[in-house]
Structures are given as structure tokens and as C-alpha cells.
Amino acid sequence: MAQYHSYGQNLQLWTCTMQLIIISSCAGCFFGCSLALVAEIIISIHARDLLQDEGQTKYMNTIFPLYSLFGFLGLHMLMYAGNVYFWARYRVNYSFIFGFKQGTELDFKQVLLLTFGLSVLILSTALANLEMEMDPETQSYKALTELLPLGLVIVVVLMAICPFNILYRTNRFFFLTCVWHCLCAPLYLVTLPDFFLADQFTSQVQLLRNVEFYACYYGWGDFKKRDAATCNESNVYKIIYIVIAVVPYWIRFLQCIRRYCEGRDSTQAMNGLKYLSTIAAVVSRTIYTQKRGTTLKIIAASTSGVATIFNTYWDLVMDWCLLCRNSENPWLRDKLILPNKSVYFIAMVISKILSHLKQITHNSFAHRDLLGHKFLKLPTHFGQKCCG
């Protein structure tokens, strides 16, 4: 009996080892393919002077918002993989904290596999789109070319809701359940996964606005003539542009109200006021960028100043416990994961710098057709969430 038991253990160990090797190999392969595709796209753009031609600049200003949606998504997944890596390295039982079923949690290699696999799919579609645009034989199929980003969205959505036991179905359904709880706040009891996900959404306002651009661009038929003027000049689009930026902060506000009603914790009420101040700042800033004017500028500056002070105080004092000089770790909270305390202070500074840079990218440019502004948004959003 002992012999068979030992054989079974060795077989199980061998199976787990092979799975890890396969996952690591596939993740590395997808990463290499992603780098190759990025290099090919850059070479194609510069070799054909795509950014120098006026018509092609219009093409890039239309296409980039469509594909940048996946850029924000991929960078956020990469950030999550980093979180999982450090949680595992410093022995944080994240599967128990988030309520994953035993044995179903993803390690950082599996998250990287999904991230790089998705990046290969995205970059392949972008390269195909670019080649079809530049190839004289396929230039007559512009409507089909413009439909490639929409097809990519449909494929990703279908993979997310696929009912079959593939592509980590348990984790996908767990994520969709948390999304539903966020959308229905405050009807559900607020758990750690729910408000953690809602907090992540607050850093993905631009992603949500890109979703709105998808709906407008393809819903109103602008893709047939490759002209986003209908969207940018529509009053309905401008109103939704404001509302959709408020949704993540409103969800967090409702979650704070639900937690306050359950525990009568005044801290939750103050946290809710913090999100209300952020909502006021986002609305006033967006209206100012759309309409301009001295009065709107003063209102936007005032609300932004209040929200910045409120959020900075909350991040440093309540979240980071910067002013807790009587704690076991001076100026930090009592319990720390990382042994090197200087990492926390460096992360605080970098987080606030990137947070302000993110606000600048939102406020200093009024139009969507500034390509450099769109490129700048990606690293600032990514870096701010890594250090925040």
C-alpha cells in the first residue's frame, strides 16, 4: 500500500511540475511574440511614414482609442500579476483573503500567460488592421478593416462569458460575479473582492470612456466613413462622457454607504465624502474641458484642489498611516509585509507624483485627436496603480 501511495505522490508531483513548465514556456513564447509584433508595428509605421500623412494621422487618431482599451486592460492585468507574485513571495494568503475556492486561485505565471496571450491577440489584430490599411489590394475594404477592433472586443467578451470549463472558468465567473456586485451596489453585502475591484475601476476611467467611444463609433455608423466627429460633437455623447467617468467613484460611494449602515463606522462615511469630492472634481474638470470659460475654470480648480487635498490626506494618513508615530513601525502602520520600510515611503512619493500626472493628462488636453496625449495616458495609469 505504501508503495502505491508513494507512486501516486510522485505522479502528482510530476504532473504539477509539467504543468508549471508548460505554463512558463507558453507565457515566455507569448511574451516573445508580443515583442516581435510591437517591433513590426513600429517598423511598419515609420517605414511608411504613417504619421506624416494627414489622412493617415486621422486614421491613427481614430484607431488608437479603439486599441488603447486593450492597452489599459493588458497593463492592469500585468499589474495584477505583479501583485500576485509579491503576495506569494511574502506569504500573503490572498486566496483566503479574496475568497477563492481552494486550488482555483491563479499564480502570477498563469496571470502572465493570460496577459501575454491576450497581447498577442491584440497586437496581431492591430498589425492586420495596419497592413490592410496600407496594402493597395485591400484598401477598398475599409469598412471591413474598421470592424477588426469590434471583432476583437466580441472575441474577448465571448471568452470571458464562455460557459465551458476552459480558460480558468472558475476565476472568470468569480470576476463576473464581483462585477455584478459592483454594478448593483449597495444591494449586496460589500466584501473585500467587491470593493477591491471597484477601487481598480476608479483607475480605469479612460478604459470606460473608450468603451463609450466603441459604442458611439460603431453604433452610429461612423466607422463606415472613419469619422469620429459625430461622437465628439454630439451633446448626448458629451453627457455620457461625464457620467461614465463618475460611475466607478459612485460605486465606491455606495459601497461606503452600505458599510456605514451596517457597522455605523464614521470612517466609512468620511471615505464616502472623499469619493463625492472626487466626483465633483471629475464633473467640473470635464465640463471645463468641453466648454471652457473663466467661471468653469475657477470651479474646476477649486473642486480639484479640495479633492486632491482630501485624497492625499486619506492615502497618506488613513491608508498608509504615515502620521502614526506611536506605532510599532514609526510613521507607518503596526503590521507591515515588506521588511524594508523605505520601500513604503518611496512608493508613497511615486504614487502621488503619478496620480498628479494622471490628472494633468486628463485636464491639460481638451481634444481626443492629440496622439501624444493618448500615449502618455498608458504609463501614468499603469504606474499610479502599481505604486498606489
UniProtKB/TrEMBL annotation:
Keyword Transmembrane helix: yes
Residues covered by the EXS domain: 232-388
PROSITE patterns: EXS
TM annotation in the entry: 20-46, 66-88, 108-127, 147-166, 173-191, 236-254
Any one GO cellular component localisation term in the record: membrane
Mode of membrane association: Multi-pass membrane protein
One Pfam match: EXS
Location of the protein in the cell: Membrane
One GO MF term: inositol hexakisphosphate binding
Gene Ontology BP, a term: phosphate ion transport
UniProt xrefs under InterPro entries: EXS_C
Keyword field contains Membrane: yes
Highest taxon in the source lineage: Eukaryota
Primary location recorded for the protein, binned into one broad class: membrane
Key words, A-Z: Membrane, Transmembrane, Transmembrane helix
PANTHER family registered for this protein in UniProt: EXS-RELATED, XENOTROPIC AND POLYTROPIC RETROVIRUS RECEPTOR 1-RELATED
Name of the protein this chain belongs to: Putative EXS
Source organism phylogeny: Eukaryota, Viridiplantae, Streptophyta, Embryophyta, Tracheophyta
